[in-house]
Design goal:
This protein is mostly helical. Among the domains are: 1-109, Serine Threonine Protein Phosphatase 5, Tetratricopeptide repeat (Alpha Horseshoe); 209-263, no CATH class. Helices cover 73% and strands 0% of the residues. The chain has helices spanning 2-10, 16-33, 41-48, 54-65, 73-85, 89-102, 107-119, 123-136, 141-153, 158-171, 176-188, 194-207, 212-225, 229-241, 247-256.
Length: 263
């Protein structure tokens, strides 16, 4: 039940009427189950996520935290969200850590911890937190993407990153960012999977034809892996046309490929 409500709140549209309606439904459920019952603590914490005033939310969460018990991680993690929302990642980090110890099964505490560790420059520890979070939420594409990103950028493990990106793509089949990163990872393998990379980049181009990063990656693919300088130069020109920032470098590549920089 809690997971369903959490998903509903996470996917809420921004309009106030919908938030008020969902908050009312959630409040009625809490009353029906027993407003003073410790078992309703997660639902009461979720209801407070609909409160736009961070001061009011924080005050109520501290009150709920005093009830403690096996659900103490819920208000603790919700307080961490408040700290993060105020731009205080270090206070949020401490609260998320405590929440994972108080309620080890609480997925959102592990997710918050992972993101905050990454934000504060601790990628290896963030990877472990993402892995722990994915035990409970194995299909979260954002967590899968972030874990793969860490494995590639900081640990140079593209082979290990690939399955996470493939799982993310199974959830978001038309996401250009996932497609580009999966394609790039395929090219970083000790034996590059050029066929899969080509498919990923071409699909990304179909979904985001004006994204300069798409054309940059296609240019690299055709220049370095498919030995097709004409197509490589075409995509590098498209990269420039759509506002790609690496103008000097890419213009030089186009010239080396035998073309003119301007489309």
């Amino acid at each position: 039940m809690t997971a369903a409500w959490e998903g509903a709140i996470d996917s809420l549209p921004p309009d106030e009427e919908t938030r008020i309606g969902l908050g009312r439904e959630l409040g009625e459920l809490v009353v029906a189950l027993g407003a003073s019952s410790a078992a309703t603590l997660p639902l009461r914490c979720l209801a407070l996520r609909l409160e736009p005033d961070l001061v009011v939310r924080e005050h109520e969460l501290y009150r709920l935290l005093k009830q403690g018990g096996p659900f103490a991680g819920w208000p603790r993690a919700a307080l961490a969200d408040v700290f993060a929302g105020r731009g205080n990642p270090h206070a949020a980090l401490d609260a998320y850590k405590r929440a994972t110890k108080e309620t080890p099964s609480l997925a959102r505490a592990w997710r918050g911890l992972a993101h905050t560790l990454l934000e504060t420059g601790r990628p290896q520890r963030a990877a472990k937190a993402f892995e722990r979070y994915l035990r409970t939420r194995p299909g979260d594409p954002d967590a899968l993407y972030n874990l793969a990103y860490i494995l590639v950028r900081w640990e140079q493990r593209p082979r290990d990153a690939r399955p996470y990106l493939e799982r993310a793509l199974n959830v978001r089949t038309e996401d250009p960012g996932i497609l580009l990163n999966l394609g790039s990872v395929c090219l970083l393998l000790s034996e590059p999977d050029v066929s899969m990379a080509s498919q990923c980049f071409k699909n990304a181009a179909a979904y985001a034809p004006e994204d300069p990063d798409v054309h940059y990656n296609l240019g690299i693919l055709y220049a370095d892996h498919l030995e097709d300088p004409r197509r490589a130069a075409h995509h590098f020109r498209q990269y420039l046309q759509h506002g790609g920032p690496e103008r000097t470098r890419v213009e030089k590549w186009i010239t080396e490929l035998g073309g003119e920089p301007q489309p």
